[in-house]
Amino acid sequence: MAGTGLRIIVGLGVFALLTACGDKKPVEKDLPRVFVQAVKPADYAASVTLTGDVQARVQTELSFRVGGKIIQRMVDVGDRVSAKQVLAKLDPKDLQTNVDSAQAQVTAEQARVKQTAAAFVRQQKLLPKGYTSQSEYDAAQAALRSSQSALTAAQAQLANAREQLSYTSLISEAPGVITARQAEVGQVVQATVPIFSLARDGERDAVFNVYESLLAEPPSDKSVVVSLLDNPAIKTTGTVREITPAVSAQTGTVQVKVTLNGLPEGMQLGSVVSATAKAPGKSAVELPWSALTKNLNEPAVWLVDADGKAQLHNVTVGRYLTGNVIISDGLDGGEKVIIAGGQLLHPGMKVEIAENTYKDLAPGAEQ
């Protein structure tokens, strides 16, 4: 009986212990803690820094007006030239022969005019006395006029030959700086083939090659600050003067010319310069890089809905910045975006917003 009583007591103790365990509530699993940021759209103006160079407003390609062999070159790249200065010369032998031939023709025609003029004078004296006929008088007069016309034509031919001969000297039409040379002494060139490039004195432009996408909307402010690339402290201001309407087939860019308001010391023709321009502001949301994830192949962010659950939401990235990303579409404002702690989330997972970390931050504010 004593053994039976002992077994009963032990059994009751075990039963009481199991009952106590059954009454205890199960421990809830800890929710993932996340940091969030409230979405507040703001106007965002993207800035882009362009690199270009200083060029002359007027650049002229200088070429000979006749063909021939170059026998002399007086200037080189970088030389400053004045108006009416001779830059190069062609061999004048062939054109000098044309001048000599035209001169001989003029001399012959002058002799012929002198002869026909004397014959006509004789006819004028004989006709009143009846010693010649009217027809002979008219023939002498016609011969004189013909010889005079031939002399005029020969003189014009001589003038043209002399002008052609003068074209063997390449002369600068205006003062400026030689920026390129395309021919050398001894080379045979055709008429109109460029020999030198001349940057004329006068106004200067800063010329930039810009991708067409950056000019989708014309800039509202056409004033630009242009600085020397090697020394940003050297700067000047300018105004956008011209945007070429055609895209370059080689570079895929559009050329933008900025008229400079004078050149400071150290900035000169050919200097490499930079300028920063801002596009028109558009409504966008700025988030830290850590907020960005992807949904398959599309960029996305994690949002916390009204029930405290994480939901994956597709967005459109407008621009990538250092440490931040600009969302151009997909967020309207007021959403809670998870900016940290979203690595192991899945759609519909309940999350816990970390205490004292949720702030209504404006774009660009510190996290």
Q: What is the share of helical residues? A: 10-25%
Unreliable residue runs: 14-20, 22-27, 356-367
Strand order of the largest sheet: 3-12-15-14-13-16
Write down the overall geometry. rod-shaped
Number of strands: 24
Radius of gyration: 46 Å
Order of helix and strand elements from N to C terminus: HEEEEEEEHHEEEEEEEEEEEEEEEEE
Quick tags:
single chain; 367 residues; alpha+beta; six-stranded antiparallel barrel; four-stranded antiparallel beta sheet; 3 helices; disordered C terminus
Notes on the protein architecture:
The protein has 367 residues and is α+β, with helices and mostly antiparallel strands. The chain has 3 helices and 24 strands. Helix 2 packs antiparallel against helix 3. The protein is rod-shaped. The relative contact order is 0.20.
Question: What's this, in brief?
Answer:
The protein is an alpha+beta fold. Helices cover 24% and strands 37% of the residues.
Give the helix/strand layout.
Blueprint: H1 2-23, E1 33-38, E2 42-44, E3 47-56, E4 59-63, E5 68-73, E6 80-81, E7 86-90, H2 93-126, H3 134-166, E8 169-171, E9 176-181, E10 188-189, E11 194-200, E12 204-211, E13 223-228, E14 235-243, E15 253-260, E16 272-278, E17 282-288, E18 292-295, E19 298-304, E20 310-314, E21 316-320, E22 324-329, E23 336-340, E24 352-353
Parallel strand pairs: 1-24
Antiparallel strand pairs: 1-23, 2-17, 3-12, 3-16, 4-11, 5-7, 5-10, 6-9, 7-8, 9-11, 12-15, 13-14, 13-16, 14-15, 17-22, 18-19, 19-20, 21-22
